[in-house]
Design a protein that fits this description.
- The chain is of the alpha/beta class and 339 residues long.
- It has a domain at 259-339.
- Helix content is 37%, strand content 24%.
- The chain contains 14 helices and 13 strands.
- The strands form 2 sheets. A 9-stranded mixed beta sheet has the order 6-7-8-3-9-10-12-11-13, sandwiched between helices. Strands 2-1-4-5 form a 4-stranded antiparallel beta sheet.
- The radius of gyration is 21 Å and the shape is globular.
- Its main location: membrane.
Length: 339
């Protein structure tokens, strides 16, 4: 019975997902076989530097991959259904209605020649065949939920009349207007100053508590992850190199890349001045990735084995996994799982 209950909790399951871009220069393996689960009402952070494959895997879930990108392997299962097998009509129903996405730059995502109200109403009427006055009332409700004052007046305004933070709130309202079960937030605070970032994060925490939806929060900022997430997956060069509960990642990191990210981040609770330690080397050339561990060429603990073979994910704690050959002790080998 316990297994049945655990299965019922799983909202999204990504298993061995592989995504490649077929360019004239060769195949770019943007996502190299990642696996994770998200339960109902759970907030998961996906962290990594630019080019690590965070956004690509999110677009794969939404069915928004553009040519020459293609899912070449693995499965994406949402509430027991195979998302990759959806036809065009099923995908249209899936996007917005069951899963919604907030993109990085709200200015490029909002149409400058339509009012905010028109765009919100269109989003809800595409998925719910309701009269315009009901859609208008729903849009007003969403703007109030995301903390926009004077919603009646704001509905009649254009995107250029809003500040960056207000536009991002509109994007959150647009993402929530169809009551999705999963919200994918792709670096929603990147273009905002730190004060507005804090407000948006607080807003998302409040909305998540009110609605109970699950969230995938994609970011390169570990501070954001600590603020909002239940669990974390750290990505590097298209692979998940470490995943676990947020406390495990912050207080007991096992992968050298995760440790490097933490050491290069300033701490406001430090007792004295601490010099930041940058991660040495340069990111992987995804056209010609290394044969073994993708982080091997930049790792101070690199061994010959690391340059030869890709490590599996070793279980280093309850639900805590790390892909590093330093963990390959006899007892850890028994707990290794395929990435």
């Amino acid at each position: 019975m316990e297994n049945v209950k655990n299965e019922e909790k799983v909202l999204l399951e990504v298993n061995d997902l592989r995504v490649s871009f077929f360019t004239p220069a060769g195949e770019v393996k943007a996502v190299g076989g990642i696996s994770y689960n998200i339960n109902y009402g759970e907030v998961m952070g996906i962290v990594g530097e630019s080019g690590s494959g965070k956004s690509v895997e999110a677009y794969s879930i939404m069915g928004l991959l553009q040519s020459p990108g293609k899912v070449v392997g693995g499965t994406i299962t949402f509430e027991g259904e195979d998302v990759l097998s959806y036809n065009k009509k099923q995908l249209q129903d899936f996007r917005g209605n069951r899963v919604s996405m907030i993109f990085q730059n709200p200015m490029t995502c909002l149409n400058p020649v339509y009012t905010i109200g028109d765009q919100l109403i269109e989003a809800v009427r595409v998925h719910h065949k309701i009269p315009k006055n009901q859609a208008w009332a729903k849009a007003i409700e969403m703007l109030e939920l995301v903390g926009i004052n004077n919603p009646d007046k704001r509905m009649k305004q254009f995107p250029h009349e809003f500040s960056g933070g207000m536009r991002q709130r509109v994007m959150i309202a647009m993402g929530l207007i169809c009551d999705p079960k999963l919200l994918i937030a792709d670096e929603p605070t990147t273009a905002l100053d730190v004060t507005i970032q804090a407000q948006i994060l607080e807003l998302m925490k409040e909305i998540q508590k009110k609605t109970g939806m699950a969230i995938i929060f994609i970011t390169h900022n570990l501070g954001v992850v600590a603020e909002i997430c239940d669990k974390v997956a750290v990505m590097y060069a298209g692979h998940i190199v470490e995943k676990g509960l947020v406390d495990d990642i912050f207080y007991q990191p096992k992968h050298p890349y995760t440790i490097g990210l933490l050491e290069s981040m300033p701490r406001i609770d430090a007792d004295e001045y601490e010099r930041l330690i940058p991660i040495s080397g340069t990111p992987v050339d995804m056209l010609n990735p290394p044969a073994g561990c993708p982080f091997g060429p930049r790792c101070s603990h690199c061994m010959k084995l690391c340059l030869r073979e890709t490590p599996p994910l070793f279980e280093v704690g309850d639900g805590h996994y790390s892909a590093c050959w330093l963990l390959a002790k006899e007892e850890a080998k028994e707990g290794a799982v395929n990435e």
